[in-house]
Amino acid sequence: MTAAEIRFINPPALANFGTFSQVAVVTGGRTIHISGQVAWDRDGNLVAPGDLRAQTEKVLDNLREALAAAGASFTDVVKFTIYVVDLKPEDRAVISEIRNRYIDMRRPPASTMIGVSTLVVAGARIEIEAVAAVG
């Protein structure tokens, strides 16, 4: 199998916010798609209902476990899709501060954040899905 080569690009004609890349290009390797993770513990109990900060940390911990099960880590993530219940501008800062502890900020993955009215379970504030590429 060919090793995955990942290039993150911020074209000069697009805004560069420094917290995500506008483009991720993957050549070779294998692609891993991680289902949206909610702040559930291993028994399916929702952690910290309504608490965005605590739930973001749990969701990213769950993503770390899912990535590891596929032989990957956060350095292999090329794209996040983040769903946030009742998204407010200040929520982005909370989520980014926590997410940035998990990713390599020299090579931030592409990312989309979407405000939604509800998630699969009452009290869940955030769900994150990821795409990763490894050799």
Describe the structure in your own words.
With 135 residues, the protein is an alpha+beta fold. The chain has helices at 52-69, 89-99; strands at residues 5-9, 23-27, 30-37, 77-85, 110-116, 126-134. The strands form 2 sheets. The chain has a 4-stranded mixed sheet. Strands 1-2 form a two-stranded antiparallel sheet. Helix 2 (89-99) links the parallel strand 4 (77-85) and strand 5. Helix 1 (52-69) packs across helix 2 (89-99). The longest helix has 18 residues, at 52-69. The chain is globular, with a radius of gyration of 15 Å. The model has no long low-confidence stretch (mean pLDDT 95).
- Give the C-alpha Rg: 15 Å
Regarding quaternary structure, what we see is single chain
Structural class: alpha+beta
Strand content: 25-35%
**DSSP strand tally:** 6
Percent helix, as a range, is: 10-25%
Contiguous uncertain segments of 5+ residues: none
Mean of residue pLDDT values: 95
Characterize the overall form. globular
Provide the spatial order of strands within the biggest beta sheet: 3-6-4-5
List the helices and strands and how they pair.
Elements: E1 5-9, E2 23-27, E3 30-37, H1 52-69, E4 77-85, H2 89-99, E5 110-116, E6 126-134
Parallel strand pairs: 4-5
Antiparallel strand pairs: 1-2, 3-6, 4-6
Helix pairs in contact: 1-2
Summary, kept brief:
This protein is of the alpha+beta class and 135 residues long.
Characteristic terms for this protein:
four-stranded mixed beta sheet, 135 residues, two-stranded antiparallel sheet, 6 strands
